[in-house]
Predict the structure of PEP/pyruvate-binding domain-containing protein.
Amino acid sequence: MATRSTDPVTLAPQTGDVVVLGGTGTADPAVLGGKAARLADMIAAGLPVPPAFCLTTGLFARYLADTGLAGKIEGAEGGAVRELILATRIPAPLADEVLAAYERLGRPRVAVRSSALKEDSAARSFAGQHDTVLDVAGDAALLDAVRQCWASLWSARATAYRDGDAAEAMAVVVQEMVHCDVSGVLFTVDPVSARPHRVVVEACRGLGEGLVSGRVSSDLFVVDDRSLEVVEERVRYKVAKWAPLAPGKIGMTKVDAADRSVPCLDHARLAELAGLGLRVREHYGSEQDVEWGLRDGVFHLFQTRPITTRPLPGDDAARAGTLSPYVVQQPDPVQHGTLWSRMDIGEIFVGLMTPLGLSFARYYQQNVHLDCAAALGVRDTGDADLHMGYYQGHVYLNISYSAHLLGQALPTRDQRHFTKRFVGEDVEGGAGGAGGEGRSLADYVNPFGKFPGGIEDVLSTAHWLRCTAAEAVRMKSRSKEMVASRLYEFDRARRLDLSRMGRRELHAELTRNLGYFHDSHVGYMPYYINAFGFYGILTELCRMWLGKEGQNLQNRIKTDMSSLRTVESAKEIWAVAQAAKDRSRVMKIINEEPLENVAAALRADDEGGVFWERHMEPFLRANGTRGHQEMELSHPRWIDDPSYIFQMIRRYASDGFSADDILRRSSGYHDDSREILKKLSLPQRKVIETVISLYALCSELRETTRMSMITSIWLVRNVVYEVGRRLVEAGVLHSLDEVAHLDFEDVRSYLAGEAGELESFPRERIDGARRLHEYRKRLPEPPLTFIGEHDITQAVRPAPGGARLSGLGASPGRVIGRARIVEDLVWQADEFEAGEILVTRYTDASWTPLFAIAGGVVTDVGSMLSHSSIVSREFHVPSVVNTKYATQRINTGDMVMVDGDTGVVEVVEG
């Protein structure tokens, strides 16, 4: 970092069009623009702002006049004006004034920022609408960056944000660049919950651009504005940061291992920062949103703006503090007596979801879920609004209502057979905690009651028997049809060019894809529920007939599960890795190119192109639509971004990993549970063996057809992101990252031609959705199950330290190994060493390749039938799930004992 200049800069008095901020010059926003005027005011007030000068609106006017652009841009389209400015050099007299000020600043590396007239005003912030160019050095680069900022006044996104208002003059700030160790934002009041006396600080490693874009993990702190004491903190595992990669190049890089689990700021620094924020608030007499950075122990303030957005009555932000997943208020017995669960709901709903993901889940609820219930033989599928609920960004299944309706089916006539499969230890054991999760099922009464008897019961039973008989006849043939249709739809989608379609054609494509989405989910549901049911029967039979000896036996029985499609994907990555390893040129590209460039580099290379066609394409056709949290449309699939695959190829091809490891682990297991079964009578043994075979069959069909369901989501995602690309082009969105903050119904309405871009996607709604999602990211993980309502703000936090954790023993065995916290698959897959203990919040199908080399698996969230449990058992890896706080109490490098039989995880060496 350049040395901060302390000498005042005196400018040529005859122009006055270059002004040192905070000096004796003007601080008029009409001259400096909103951002520069604020910075000048902050410097004059003695706040720690890096030195800067401003190219005034007057200088911009002279540039337009001297180059003849003033006449050319009159009435011209925004895009054309932007291109004209980018192509027109700054005349020498003006350039000399700019460069003279740069010389007086000391010629450091600088950040060049736009400062439009209304930017950072109380009415409209214009945040992110105009360009900023970071880490600029040298005369030519500085002048180019200035023209880029001027041109951004006519960018598509700025034009859309003005919503018909004319473009006004633009000033530009040139500010000394500070390569921060830690950066973030400070809100002098909680911008979402509006709880009083709370200064909210979000902090990340490196530069603040990573936090603003939502691409890096950040710590959250809340400081009481009266005492400056830290009253709340959530320290996350931080894998990546924005930082200089080379002179003039800023990008993503890894956080040093020693800094990943450590808070970005200690309490003393937080008190100092909060004090600065309060000084800013007092100076302006209003609540402020402040951007800050810390370098070598010194705080710098880069920007402040009034907090212009607060929760609006009736919008989603207003529901941020609600205690129930119900979207619509219910009668009191239902509101407070409903059992909610997010255990084992298909893995695709696991974890916090974005506004786009939640709205797509709502579409599924309204348009697909009832037909899925009908496919199970349920005659009366009930009210769609009651089947599912949403709590703090998580999707919950209404177990009470589902159990009520499933009472129409013979196997679940007794509701306990269904409800106990979805109940976590918090409810079942009556454990303490905030909200309703401390209640036990022992005294639980379903507020919806039992399904009506009499003629309704007779009709429902007859209907279920007919559907069940039809399913038994059709289950295998339907599976084959679904596999064939998946490949057809995948190949068809690869051939389509959505960018060439008009809005009406794109609407037709989305409608078609949603039809396939419906059919694939309805076709998949019986396999999923039947496998679930046979597992439950197997568990119950083991308990009744084998007692203690049969405890957890259902998880030790080796069924024919090695054909699981999820497990096969890990084997196939291994095969691709071996093919790459045999080609030195291919392996060199995979190892040495940046992850985002590997695919293009392979296809552009002669040998790499052959490898891609022979190995990558078949793999992607079979597995490419997999991805993290699959119902979440904002997450790319492997075929969209194969970075994770290349990371696993690097890992599988590295020295020390045997070519037979993955195959041996998943197929060479000796099943000694059969010896226990021999103690049963012959009729009992035959019954259990029959149940095992049915469980294995349904599991195999479930995994085979799951790819159809996953592919259908990818098809919908393709259309949504084509809409997003067009919205970025039109300036409605700043970047494709903002697609995550759209509402799926708005996308459908827009494609149906009901309104234009600005009407369908108003900026206020996008910003409100983003704020609400950021608020939810700060909150503790809600429980897997609870009854009635839950107050997440009162959730019990883990005590400091804690070398021993209890959870659910999900896969038997005992192992000791070094722990590795994994937060981000793409960024960390290459770090994971064979035999390490994988510690993470939760897993889904995209994590399977890591299981093949893990010594053990520990998760914060999970159940006996969650992905982490099933795949751990398949790979015979000891696993403990639902520990709640493992990622907060265990550090990378700790020696950890994992006991998958007792459910205990213990740090044996820190």
Notes: The first strand starts at residue 18 and ends at 20.
